[in-house]
Write a structure and sequence with these properties.
Elements: E1 2-8, H1 17-35, E2 39-45, H2 50-59, E3 63-67, H3 78-88, H4 97-104, H5 106-115, E4 123-126, E5 140-144, E6 158-159, H6 162-175, E7 181-185, E8 190-199, E9 202-205, E10 209-213, H7 226-230, H8 235-238, E11 240-243, H9 251-267, E12 273-280, E13 286-293, H10 302-309, H11 314-323
Parallel strand pairs: 1-2, 1-3
Antiparallel strand pairs: 4-7, 5-6, 5-7, 8-9, 8-10, 8-12, 10-11, 12-13
Amino acid sequence: MKVAVVHNAVDEHETDPATRDVLDQAEFVAAALKKDGHQVRRFGCTRDIHLVLRALRAWKPDRLFNLVESLEGYAALHPCAAGLWELLGIPHTGSPSWALEHGTDKHTAKVLMAAASIPTPAWTLWRERDGAPPAAPPPWIIKPALEDASLGIEEESVVGDCAALRARADWLRATFPGQPLLVEQYIDGREFNVSILSSPEGPRVLPPAEMRFVGYPPGKARVLGYRAKWAADAFEFRNTERVYDFGPEDAALLEAIRAVSLQCWTLFELRGYARVDLRVDADARPHVIEVNPNPCLSPDAGFAAAVGRAGIPPEVMVRWILEDCVCLPRRPIMS
């Protein structure tokens, strides 16, 4: 089978690890596909979309492994790429464009979850004209509503009063111009990631991981932000651990976390692979803070770690994702 691995194009001088990471994903996926006997070509995608369309039409792939995470730095545009593959009639991996759009927009995601009675922290969409404080009591965490990879999220995102909220909002507006901001009730509790992988038997919930903040001094907000994920020399990176081993006292909590994560998979019509991030409050109740369609597939990322914990070889993971392609019932137009 001819499989096109398409990712957002990355400038050769790019230094941001969150942006360059997609190249590691593309290399890993391409190697796994070749090992499985497929013909593979990699394509970089920009907003100058006719270039990748011309290349795809020339090669005529049977399927497309979609690793587009943003277009020229705009994460909110990445659902457009999946929509294009659907318009062209190319079966593509991962979630469909509508699921990517709903998952990328944190406000829309929370509206959908609240309507479906999926627990999620109280929130307010904070626009530039807003000045009133959120309805939920502080502390709050404020974040860009349309970014991924924890861009714009740090310890400084957690604020305890309106003055600090407005100051952080001003910084975010300057850094992410034109983007709405989400103000969410901050739950100072345990944090879990739950990965879900399509399998021949249906969606498989992989072993939940707890993200533990080790050695954090009193008063330091426990946030899995940009520094914790990408800045290797930062305190947050060195002192955040992913843990899979739990005692019997956590059995009921883990079951609740698995169940609500699977609810999210169904609600958002996810495909292939996804990750659900949750916080647990003082009453041991899980709350979904984010739904992540098409999470990072790098070998050192959390999804791959959960796959390994489940005993699934990496090439099998890639094969199962490829087998669960989005394939709309319409005549292909690649000829």
